[in-house]
Amino acid sequence: MLRIDRRMIEHFDWITFGVVILICIVGILTIYSATRPPLDEGEHPPFYVKQLLWLIIATIALIIFVSFDYAKLRDFWLIFYIFGIILLVIVLFTGKTAMGAKRWINLGFFSFQPSEIFKIIFIISISAFLENKKSPLSTKDVLKTLLIFGIIPFLLILKQPDLGTALLIFLLTFVMIIYKGLPIRLLLLLLSVGVISIIFLWEILWEGLKEYQKNRLIAFIDPHIDPKGIGYNIMQSVISVGSGGFFGKGFLEGTQGPLKFLPERHTDFIFPIFAEEWGFLGCLILLGLYYLIFLRCFETSMVAKDNFGKLISVGFTSIFLIYFFINIGMTIGIMPVVGIPLPFMSYGGTTLLANFIGIALVINVRMRRFELFYP
């Protein structure tokens, strides 16, 4: 039976939890506004209701994941990892296809993305794997980590195809390796090999991309080359952000969402909808809330009681940071569109649940930072 020590409750990170809930509520309101019918005529899609239900489920999951000592997870990391890989394999053969990609497993009463669940498993597994390795890592340990946690899941997720998540997993592998300790010579060697490989293999890599992935890169370089085609998303997104001005048009006063000028307005492009309604000032406040989350998560990695807790905190902090910067970057035209949602705001049940489990484990680490000193 799960039991929470009174001292754990006293050290619960209410600030992080409160800010996350606040951002989620802002997200639900923005989803409501983005998906409302034009001129308020017609039926309102229930995306905001579904997101609210997922928020309740995610909050319950958060309570569960802070109720036990995170250190117990390290004993089962291999089982978790094998289970995660099996899910990624299953989705390739029996997954539900949508928008040209097999990313979902349909259980009848709901669908979920194994790649989202795998991110949680990935951080737990690689943290347990690296915890007791000597720092800096040996060349053997680096290559083994890259193969097990970088290359294998990268290829499986890329096959779906989900280029954004695949690149995230590979990048996270490097982040965790560098945090654990990487000899400068080996780091320079890996960077050199990577750059040289891209130069010589670029044509092969380019031919291996799907047509829509090629179009996204072309549109990023010059969206005006086809403003009504491949450059449409980026241009409409930038227009949405700019039209908000300093103070914004006001809640439910935006036009880009309900008039359907902006595609994926309640998922990947939810930030432009928010920016149009709340303006530059509202965006500053929102960015400040995210900054507070990143700061608290980073502090947790510094005060954790053990290396496992430090690595878990660094891993999830990196996920939130990478998702945040890529999503904001692609919506304002400084990064290519890769289908990365904005954490805690974008519509998506599995993603929200995965993010809450991640933040729960970070809070778990912070709660138990004094546990070694308890009688």
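The above is record 1. Record 2 follows with the same two-line structure.
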Amino acid sequence: MQPLINSNKARLSQVYFAYFTILGIVSNYLGLYLHSLSLPPSLIGVVLAVMTVGRVAGPSIWANIRFFKNSPEKNIQLGCLFALISFSLIFLIGHQHWVLLLSLGGFAFFWSAVMPQLEAVTQFILKGDSTAYSYVRLWGSVSFICLVIIAGWLFEIFGIVKSIEGFTLLLLALLLASTFRLPKVVPVSDTKNRQIKVRDKLKQRPVQIFLLCSFLLQMSFAAYYGFFSIHLQSLGYTGYQIGMMIALGVIAEIGIFLISGRILNHFNLKTLFVFCLAITAFRWFALGLWGEQVFVLLMIQLIHAFSYGLYHVASQKFIHKEFPNQSQAKGQALYLSLSYGVGGAVGNFLSGYSWQYIQQQTYLLSGTCVLISALIAWLFLNQHQN
């Protein structure tokens, strides 16, 4: 048992587990937390905008700091420490508006900067093994479900504000502690690999197409993350049913992680990218047109395995190939900043206005957006891209 706990995969899994519990809070309950502080909607928007800027800028800026270039695990530890310190300002000073902006903005900056570094370390340790990566990454999805279950229970006992603040602080401390068990990385010093520059990679069409498709995919997800619960409530689903549907999507995500390594061994990346994007387009069209039918909704949530899980694993393989060795962290940062950061921000802005005027038709726009990305991948990615 001891060797298993101390294996590289176990050490990496612990960090993913801790990181994604925090993501569960940020993605599901942050708006509720700010509302519970009795902030005006305009200020809530400002706080979320500041956090979005932090999430966009953090990965790229942190990845280009060369102080810990020969010890990337130290870079991760420092990012977790600063995220913990930033969030602690709320406890130390209070809920003044400037404190919330400084605390949550700093937290978003440093916390989001950790993920590309972690992904780079993981790919280096696992040597690009998609099967091993999937088994490590699935623990992030497991923790996400655990958070959803535990958070509801804590809200009933301690209230929303105390629960979210205390739980987040505890999880940030857990995340920091888990990073000290990360396997040590010895960067490759090969001269040829050191000459690889991100700006040169950005001139290559496969990288450009991959980033564009990832941007459009995450932009299409904004309406799902922001209005899925509201949409289902308007269709007559109960809170329990909505929670079960969300959980089903995450369970499907875990399931695909268990078999994605074998899938990647049988299909090239272009085929997988086109399939994941195309079926995601169908998912959003179906949600907008037939979401009131339970069977269709179940199918829509099962598709989450491909629109998020399989696409992400395939993306990691692509980045591992295109951004080897010391350029890995910068490639990860570029991917996360442009897709989840900029793509998510643009999608949130557009879907907010769209939902205000045409509501569920917003999902038809999301479907069109990701269908375009599927066509771009089909037309311009190399068929032999592996």
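The first helix runs from residue 2 to 5.
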